[in-house]
Request: fold
Amino acid sequence: MAEKGKFFQVRFVLGDQIQTHIQGKDVAPLEAIGLLEMAKDQILGNLRKGTKNVFHVEKKE
Reply:
């Protein structure tokens, strides 16, 4: 279960130059790095599988 009020968001704006916008609330720097690593692993895994859907989220209870 996610903690209330805690979030981490990364947005990439693609154009002539790539801009990166990062927002976070109550997320430690090492936790942010871990979240980025998880996203990277998920993207690379999907590329290895050859899937078109880059992001897939599952809720485990």
Summary: The first helix runs from residue 29 to 49. Residues 23 and 32 are 10 Å apart (CA to CA). Strands lie at 7-13, 19-25.
